[in-house]
Amino acid sequence: QIDITYEWDKTTIPYKWVKSSKSEYNFDASGNMTSMILYEWDKTIIPNNWVGTTKTVNTYVNGNNTLSTSYTWDGSQWVQLSKKESSFNPNGKNTVDITSMWFMIQWQNVSKKEYKYDASGKDTLDIDYDWDMLNSKWAGYDKTRYTYNATDKIATETTFSWDKTLPVPAWVKS
Questions:
Q1: Which residues contact 108 (CB under 8 A, 6 or more apart)?
Q2: Closest of 147, 114, 148, 109 to residue 131, by C-alpha
Q3: DSSP code for 93
Q4: How would you write the pLDDT of the chain (174 residues) with one tens digit per residue?
Q5: First to last CA, the chain
Q6: How many Cβ atoms are within 10 Å of 167's Cβ, its own excluded?
Q7: What pTM value is reported for the model?
Q8: In degrees to the nearest 10, what's the CA dihedral of 117, 118, 121, 126?
Q9: Contact, 41 vs 18, CB < 8 A?
Q10: Buried (b) or exposed (e) across 73-106, using 16+ Cβ within 10 A?
């Protein structure tokens, strides 16, 4: 699927619609988006042409998006920018997301989010971590606990922040 956006150009006489951006989407046989490429119309080059800006490539396992990698165009090639790796439980619920950034020659962890569910599949706890580069480990950032009422609507949402300044670091209610 290709979507093209035009903008009204008032710098020319007569005014006219000119190309602005293009989005190109690819899907697998199950309808999952396997890639998305964004372009901008470059009218500074002759002949005018589409120039890539960003690209995302997705990998699916059992219908779940387990890897999403983003790239940026450097003028001559696509360069890795970031990726998100996701894990799912047997019910297809997202249990972990790990985001990394491409740094020089390797991937560097940035953040991690864990999701916990009750027996009926409702989200009960989300925990966010940042990568502690100094100690090469995940460090708590914040977490949110959810409870539900009899009609399965969220009854309470309690947020905590990781306080590493305490004598014994701990989760503190926000």
A1: 100, 101, 102, 131, 133
A2: 109
A3: -
A4: 899 999 998 988 899 898 899 999 999 999 999 999 999 999 888 888 899 999 999 999 999 999 999 999 998 999 999 999 999 999 999 999 999 999 989 999 999 999 999 999 999 999 999 999 999 999 999 999 999 999 999 999 999 999 989 999 899 998
A5: 44
A6: 5
A7: 0.83
A8: -20
A9: yes
A10: beeeebeeebbbbbebeeeeebeebbbbebeeee
What would the two tokens of residue 23 be? 């989005």
Q: Retrieve residue 109's tokens.
A: 């962890």
* Residue whose entry in the numeric block shows the structure tokens 């027996």: 119
Q: Which amino acid would we find at residue 174?
A: S
For the chain, what's the residue count?
174
Residue at token pair 């990726």: 83
- The amino acid at residue 116 is K
Q: Determine the Cα–Cα distance for residues 14 and 94; give it in Å rounded to an integer.
A: 53
Q: Parallel, antiparallel, or unpaired: how do β-strands 16-27 and 33-42 relate?
A: antiparallel
The pair of three-digit structure tokens given for residue 86, joined into one six-digit string: 């996701």
Q: Which residue has the tokens 């901008």?
A: 40
Task: Write out the two tokens for 166.
Answer: 């305490």
* Of 103, 112, 100, residue with least CA distance to 79: 103
Detail the DSSP E strand segments found in 16-136: 16-27, 33-42, 49-61, 64-73, 78-88, 94-103, 106-117, 123-132
